[in-house]
Design goal:
This protein is mainly beta and 632 residues long. The protein has a domain of 107 residues. It is built from 4 helices and 51 strands. The strands form 14 sheets. The protein has a 5-stranded antiparallel sheet, with no helix packed on it. Strands 30, 31, 32, 33 and 34 form a 5-stranded antiparallel sheet that branches. It has a 4-stranded antiparallel sheet with strand order 5-7-8-9, with no helix packed on it. The radius of gyration is 25 Å and the shape is globular. The relative contact order is 0.11. The N terminus is likely disordered.
Length: 632
């Protein structure tokens, strides 16, 4: 596939300019208030990072490959996400002069370290770099983001630390975290998982290890930041590991059991949250080993924990967002938004900043197929929204304090918001002061048909998005032609938006194209859903197709060939022809399943997975869409 990439050195003079517009815009709140004030950001002091940006992996839309800035550094990164070290100075949970200092990556089995200031990439270490296979990164959040690389060197496993030190007797182990005598002191060893003995171990810097406890490979839940403790949930029991001495202590769940399912447990701050099998949410304080019920009454819509602000827990499911106070004082849960056939929220993995929880609503016009977005903030028990807008990213302030209670654990420098959005989320990109999140900011530029959702789709960027003299890089998906590009903008300058790459569109019928594991319409202006071979929704229906027949005689075909082969999608505007019936076709275009009549109401029925859901169907839909039998 031909790919056009434009490289940036210092000033992107060769890049593709985007039409910009400056000045303030009319306030479009629902209450009809007058024009908003324009708040501009102040330049930050401190060392600057050298910018880097990524090119896309054309085989898997949304998986980004990094391209290093510089004439002789055009190495493609095989790892899915860029991995960054940061300089971080501790003091009362504060940090100073946060910046990107080193970029670690692997290319064709060779590990490299790029000094962002010197722009020099060197193998790390050169002695074994050529023999490394299957490198894997582990991010440890200790005094800033530390990234470690484990890889095979022949028949043995090696660990490469951020400073390039090799630990060649690492063994068949998985790095979980680092250990230290007290928080803030130098690292003295590692917490690892032994894949052979199935035990968690505490190891010295020389890899002399002692067993801590038996557990599964995914039972480690993370560190209690600011302490020496880590948390493990194994076989229905909760444990606290003190990395200082390698001891483990069981913490009672007060007789409660954890519900099965993805997202039913979360570690945040000093607390472990879990969804109980009794449909209540509980908070366990790791320090005091106390258990508190957070939700006032049982709630069957409580399926997973979504995110946190300093005071609230955000929970719900793929179709509802609710909030309750962490201290359990909420008498009635607050519903932020509930998804229906024509309205809902864009699925996010948790994005709380201080007392703010950022999320987005959408509403669908069933006559035109137009999707209108709202950028919303939940704060102090209230929801406020701005029409025709949504959130694109949050950047970290160079000087600030760590906030372990909220999902976003740093002080924010800027919110990036898209205003005057089109069907796909393109529009005016603006730099917004977090103190005035729904007011106006400077307009860095305008871009159509691109979906800027860096902190949603590629959420790992949210912890490393630091500006360099005001400049940041964002990625966006073009939801018309299905490709991803990189954009540079300066948060301090009007009309500074520049498109860095211009990649070719991707054939959406091949590979894992554009599949992000979500109901299509929730993410962007597409209709669609999933089709399976079995009624339990576990077997792919690759090779089958979905055909829509409209009451007026028109037809539309949708191929099933994304993800595991169960996804299909269509532009919403193609469903404005009225009611339709659905046919499932095999490879010979023979009908194997179909709806009984024209009972799907055009655009209103675009979100197939909303009704045909696994485990909980709606509007009398017959479970998931399947090839097994005709719809009854």
């Amino acid at each position: 596939m031909k790919k056009r990439v434009i490289y940036l050195v210092v000033v992107a003079s060769a890049a593709i300019a985007i039409n910009g517009c400056g000045g303030s815009s009319a306030n479009d709140y629902k209450d009809g208030t007058s024009k908003s004030n324009v708040y501009t950001l102040k330049a930050e002091n401190g060392a600057n990072s050298r910018l880097f940006y990524g090119d896309v992996n054309e085989k898997s839309l949304g998986s980004l490959k990094n391209v290093i800035v510089g004439s002789d550094l055009n190495k493609s990164i095989d790892d899915r996400y860029p991995v960054v070290d940061t300089a971080y100075e501790k003091g009362s949970n504060g940090y100073k002069n946060l910046r990107i200092t080193t970029l670690h990556y692997d290319s064709n089995g060779t590990a490299y370290s790029l000094d962002m200031n010197k722009s020099i990439a060197t193998p790390m270490p050169a002695v074994i770099a050529s023999n490394l296979t299957n490198p894997s990164y582990t991010k440890v959040d200790y005094l800033g983001v530390k990234n470690y690389l484990t890889a095979k060197d022949g028949n043995s496993t090696v660990l490469i630390t951020p400073d390039g030190k090799i630990i060649d007797n690492f063994g068949n182990k998985k790095l979980l975290s680092v250990t230290y005598p007290s928080f803030g002191e130098a690292i003295d060893g590692y917490l690892v998982y032994n894949n052979d003995s199935h035990k968690i171990e505490k190891c010295s810097s020389a890899m002399i290890c002692s067993e801590v406890m038996s557990a599964g490979s995914r039972d480690f839940k993370g560190d209690v930041l600011g302490t020496t403790y880590s948390v493990v949930y194994s076989d229905g029991k909760l444990y606290k590991i003190d990395k200082k001495d390698g001891s483990s202590t069981e913490i009672s769940l007060d007789g409660k059991s954890v519900a099965r399912g993805y997202g039913t447990t979360r570690l945040q701050g000093e607390s472990f949250y879990f969804v109980g099998s009794d449909h209540n949410l509980y908070r366990v304080n790791i320090e005091t080993a106390s258990v508190k019920k957070v939700t006032p009454t049982a709630d069957e819509e409580l399926e997973k924990v979504v995110g946190f602000t300093d005071s609230y827990v955000i929970y719900g499911s793929d179709v509802v967002l609710k909030a309750v106070k962490k201290d359990g004082s909420t008498q009635n849960p607050i519903t932020l938004i509930k998804t229906g056939l024509t309205k809902g929220y864009k699925y996010v993995t948790g994005y709380g900043v201080g007392e703010d929880y950022l999320f987005e609503k959408y509403s669908l016009n069933t006559q035109t197929g137009h999707t209108a977005y709202q950028a919303c903030i939940f704060n102090s028990g209230k929801v406020e929204c701005k029409d025709n807008s949504f959130w694109a990213a949050v950047t970290i302030a160079k000087d600030g304090k760590r906030d372990y209670e909220a999902s976003f654990s740093y002080t924010p420098y800027a919110y990036i918001r898209v205003d005057n959005t089109d069907d796909f989320g393109g529009g005016d990109l603006k730099a917004i002061d977090p103190k005035h999140p729904l007011e106006d900011g400077i307009t860095m530029g305008h871009i159509d048909d691109y979906n800027f959702q860096t902190f949603i789709t590629n959420y790992r960027y949210k912890d490393v998005l630091v500006d360099s003299q005001g400049e940041v890089i964002l990625y966006a998906k073009n939801d018309v032609n299905f490709h991803v590009d990189a954009f540079k903008m300066n948060l301090l300058k009007k009309n500074s938006l520049v498109q860095l790459t211009n990649t070719d569109p991707i054939n959406i019928t091949k590979g894992r194209d554009h599949c992000h594991g979500r109901v299509c319409m929730i993410c962007h202006n597409l209709a669609g859903g999933k089709i399976y071979k079995d009624k339990n929704g576990t077997q792919s229906a690759y090779g089958y197709r979905v055909k829509l027949e409209f009451a007026n005689g028109d037809t539309q075909m949708m191929d099933v060939a994304k993800g595991k082969g169960e996804n299909f999608s269509s532009l919403l505007t193609k469903l404005t022809k009225g009611d339709f019936k659905v046919f499932i076709l095999d490879g010979n275009d023979s009908v194997v399943n179909n709806s009984l009549g024209y009972n799907h109401k055009g655009v209103e029925a675009a979100n197939c997975n909303y009704c045909h859901a696994r485990g909980k169907t709606r509007n009398d839909a017959p479970s998931v869409i399947t090839i097994e039998q005709k719809e009854k």
